[in-house]
Request: fold
Amino acid sequence: MPEGGASIYKSDDNGTPVAGVEAVAPPGAAAPPGERTVGGVRRAGLLVTFILGGLTAVTPLAMDMYLPALPEVTRSLNAPAATVQLTLTACLAGMALGQLVVGPMSDRWGRRRPLLVGLAIYVVATALCAFAPTVELLVACRLAQGLAGAAGIVIARAVARDLYDGVALARFFSTLMLISGMAPILAPLIGGQVLRFTDWRGVFVVLTVLGVLLTALVWTKLPETLAPADRHGGNFGDALAPMRRLLADRVFTGYMLAGGFAFAALFSYVAASPFVMQEIYGASPQTFSLLFGLNSIGLMIMGQVNGKILVGRVRLDKALGAGLAVVVAAATALLLMSLGVFGETGLVPVAAALFVLMSSMGVVMPNTQTLPLMRARHAAGSASALLGTTGFLIAAVVSPLVGIAGEDTAVPMAVVQLASALVATACFLGMCRPWKSGTNTKGGGV
Reply:
């Protein structure tokens, strides 16, 4: 039960309260289907949404705010650039592996305790980064930071699955993308401004303060969303059993792989676009920053189109299939331009194709999270862990391939994006078989 004796309104796909869960709504107002009220106050739902958005954004902030400081870290710690780059790799690896641990823990002990422990460790690890005397200790602290920060990512999705289902779940993920999608836009700007007044250690001080504030919000405002009756007992090995069952589910695994390879296409853009846009197509750093921001805004806008317009009117499978088709088309166009099929291509058509590709991810990514989580009613933490870890691991393996042919061509980026999009589409069609599914019509849960 949340603080203050508050209860959580819970309903099924049609808005009918679920037996055994008390419905609390404000006087004179009924909670809409799939939506909950916390403590009897409808506005609390907005606060919880922002908290969950902050949880999904805190670790990307830790990655991106730090990027402008990398050259300074190299000089300050007298370390080779390659070693300093390990601080990024360690954080990314921690985010991937930490989700596998925290997800099952949250299914066993509830959402709040693992989340609060993870946030506390994240704050301590981030503070230690600010005072690390050597690059080796900084790498170790960044690993701990990623492991602990993974709690926010995986539990935010699990809480969303506890609170929402069907159409409401898909809409919520689109809203969450709007909030968390601001992180990659604002983080480098914030990091750059911080570096105007302090050194790289100050970036970690700011991140520590943000972590403390988020921990306080979770402690005071985020209620427990997983009822004791829905938790898994037994030892940690028993807690991993839901993961084995989920992986044995062909449709769940299909959605998981489709989402993972779609994320790889997105991450290859993040890894390669600074070089491709500036070194090959001549964009200035300011122009690149503008284009990067526009692509992120396009992704968020299409996320809202998915949540506000498509969901509830179009089957989630159809929306996902259409999104993947557009990604494949955009990646194909990029590859053809990179190969010179259309002659010498300038910055504008390449930027336009990347904008279409990135914007389409606003439809693909929410639905590749919603559809598999709808198949995991009683193991949302484990399902969320598998989804997050798969995406990070596939992206970590695939993204280095974008530079395999050197610095004079954009072909590797386009090949990686197209191959990832085609594999994602093949997993979706071959394993999920959406034409045979009658369970996801207009977002209905399974």
Remarks:
- The longest helix spans residues 250-280.
